[in-house]
Amino acid sequence: MEPHSYALPRGVHALPTSDLDLRPDALIDHDILNPSPIATEKNVWFFWHSGFSNIHSYTQRNIRAWHRRFSRCGWTIRVLDRQPDSPLNIANFLDIKDANTFPKAFADGTIGGEHAPQHTSDLVRWPLLLKYGGVYADVGLMQIGDLDAIWNKTVGDPTSPWEIVSYNAGGPSGRSLTNYFFCSGKNNPLFERCHRLLLALWAAGGGKTSTDGMCDSPLLKGMPHMGRTFSVPGIVNEDGSRVDSEGVGRMLTDYVIQGQAAIMVMSLVDEEDGWNGPRYCAEHVYAIDYMEGSQLINDFTAWDGPRAFRLLSLQLPKNGKEETQEQSEARQIVEGCLSRSFGFKLAHGLIIKVLGDTLGSLWRANKGSDDVPGTYAHWLRYGTMHWCPDELPQRQDWKVEEPIKRGPLLRAS
């Protein structure tokens, strides 16, 4: 990205160019496609079924920015895939035939349903972190804050109590970690139990090929469905009738069943196993508020994707002209994200049915619109690569909450 005279927002500092890998994209892509052997836990894991070269261009820019920002701090960016003969095939890193690592449908390549790619990627996250440690991030996550600094403060510091870093969508008294950013060391006890429960959900009834109906599993008894208050006229049944709020809740819960598994483990007291999820969370999880930390554009625009796209596509004022009202709104978005957020998650998938087009879906549909010099979107991208917020995100103050379940993890109660 060529240098531009964008204003440095208050609360943000420029990174020394010596700390950044500012070589041309082709050289960055070569490093991403040919990562060094695994030698430490400082790995940033991504997954895209058809590989980095086939990811949408705006998400390739996201991943390149991770490399440019953090490779010189010792982090290696790894974009795994399921392409035959690819050195980055997930089978070269994990035993896909191991029933304790993947469900049969993953090994057979028979995961189906409308959101099969998302559920395939869900199944690689915990196994990669359990074996190798580091960070798992969605390709749609734009990193803003200092990953290396928060790692050194938490997981990477053996004297720190913080063993997991993630965003939390549940509020200080809730437990709802977002699976688009997980950070942990190897063999984390929370993630090990989460994955064991997720595998049990996939194994039910002799083995499932989709997440449909998993929300009703006896292993999740006592867990409320997600999003039960939504009223979404855009989602209809096959007969044309509107899906009611309960139906939307079931759809959302099945879609993010990995999140449900995590909530259950975080809210479980299993005395036979010596596991106290509520206490572990209060003492060992560095939870960042997900709205301030990773969804601030949606806060500014009330989850209106077309509005966010329109504002960020605007050109900045030229020749000393005063900014318009919309330019002022776009500036506040960029300055707010760069100074207050740790990242921004570009949303896709089922959320489009629930809320309509998102900034991510519109950047995908309008190729290159996120990278036009002189626009607010380009200012945001430039800032995520060359600048950093002065402060690390604060940890939510979690207390020891009442458990949802008492008893063995894999026994229905």
From TrEMBL:
Q: Name one Pfam family in it.
A: Caps_synth
Question: What GO MF annotations does this protein's record show?
Answer: glycosyltransferase activity
Q: Which InterPro entries match?
A: AfumC-like_glycosyl_Trfase (IPR008441), Nucleotide-diphossugar_trans (IPR029044)
Top-level taxon of origin: Eukaryota
Q: What name goes with this protein? A: Capsule polysaccharide biosynthesis
In its UniProt entry, the species of origin is given as Paraphaeosphaeria minitans
Upper lineage is:
Eukaryota, Fungi, Dikarya, Ascomycota, Pezizomycotina
